Request: fold
Amino acid sequence: MHILQTLPTTATLLVHMLLMFQFEAGVSGFEPDFLYPLENITVAQGRDATFTCVVNNLGGYRVSGDLATARVAWIKADTKAILAIHEHVITNNARLSVTHNDFNTWTLNIRNVKREDRGQYMCQVNTDPMKMQTAFLEVVIPPDIVYEETSGDMMVPEGGSAKLICKARGYPKPRIVWRREDGGAIVARGGPGGRAERQLSVEGEMLTLTKVTRSEMGAYLCIAANGVPPSVSKRMMLHVHFHPLIQVPNQLVGAPVNTDVTLQCHVEASPKAINYWTRESGEMIITNDKYYMTEINNSYYSVQMKLVIRRFHKSDLGGYKCISKNSIGDAEGNIRLYEMEIQERADSDDENMEEDVETENTEKRLYNGFQGPLTETEESSLQPNISSGSSGSTSDTVLRSGALLLVLFLLI
Reply:
C-alpha cells in the first residue's frame, strides 16, 4: 500500500481499474469445468461406494446476477432428490456424507450400500447455464438359496422318479447348476431314442431323474452363482429304497484244522439293513472268542460282511448263512465249510514222485541191459542175423556160439 500511496492520484486510479479488470476476468473469464468424468460404480450390497467429482476454476466464480459463489451439489437423478450442497448433507440419510479437500475435489460417500441406492447420481455446478455430469451406481447382490422353495432330502423306490428343485435369489439372477457330491455322472433319461445320457453337471432350477437305480443314490449339490462372490450351494440326499440283495463270492470254503477261516458276503440294501450270521441249524452266531464279525461299508447301500472262525475244528464243519433284513424285505446267502487235508496230499505227492523215480531208473536199467557190452562192429555183424529170418540160421548160430565160447576159454 505504501507503493500506491507514493504514486500520483491518476496512476492510483489506473492500478485499481487494472486489478478490478483482472478480478472480473478471473471471475467471469474462466468458468468452472470438470477435470475428470464421473465414473460408474458397481458394488456389492453391504459395501461402501464413493463418487468423486473434480471441478476446476470454481473458487471466486459468481453466478451472473448473484453475489453468491458457485457451489457443487449432489443429486439422485432418477428421483430428483438433492442429497448434498457443498459440504452439507440435505437428505435425511445417515449413510450419506460429503467431503471437500479445500481445493477442487468433492466426494459423495454412501456407506453400507443397499439395493434402493441403485441409480443415476449427478454432480452439478450451478453456473449459468448449469453444468453437470452423471454416473450410475450398480448394486449387485451375491446369491442366496431360498430354502423355503428348495427341496430337501428325498426317498424314492428303485425304478421310480425324483424331482429336485432349487431356488435362489440375488442380482443379477443366479445361475443354478447341479452336480453329484462324489463327482459321479448324473443320468438323464428320456432323450432322443430313449437313450440315457451321462453328464457331470445339469443346469436349471429343476433336476428330474427317471427310472432311478441304486447307483444314483447319494448326495446332490445345487450350486447358485451370479458372478458376485461367494457362490452358495445346498446339499440334498437322494435315498433309493430296495430290498436286500446278497452275493456270495465263495459258496464252498475249505480250510485245514486249527487255522482261522474267513467267510464273506456282499450285501446291497436300502434303507440300511440288519445283517447277521447263523449256522445252517438256525443258531445265531455272536461275537466271542470263537467268532469275530465285521462289516465294511463300500457305498451308501453296499456292505461287506465278514465272519472269522478261529481255530477251525471238525465241529465247525457244515453250512453257514449270512442274512440281511430291512423294512422292504430280506435275503440270505449260504456257504459250506469243509476240511482240507493238506498233509495227506503232500505225502501222496511224495509217494508219487518216488514211484516215478523208480520207474525211470528201471527203464534205464532195462535199456542199459538190452544194450549190453556190444560194440559197434559186433552190433553190425549181428544185425543181418536178427532181420534175416531164414530156416538155416539155427545151425549157423550154434556154430558161432561154440566158436565164441572157445575164444573166451582160450582168453581165460
Q: What stands out?
A: The helical segments are 2-6, 9-28, 342-371, 376-388, 393-411.
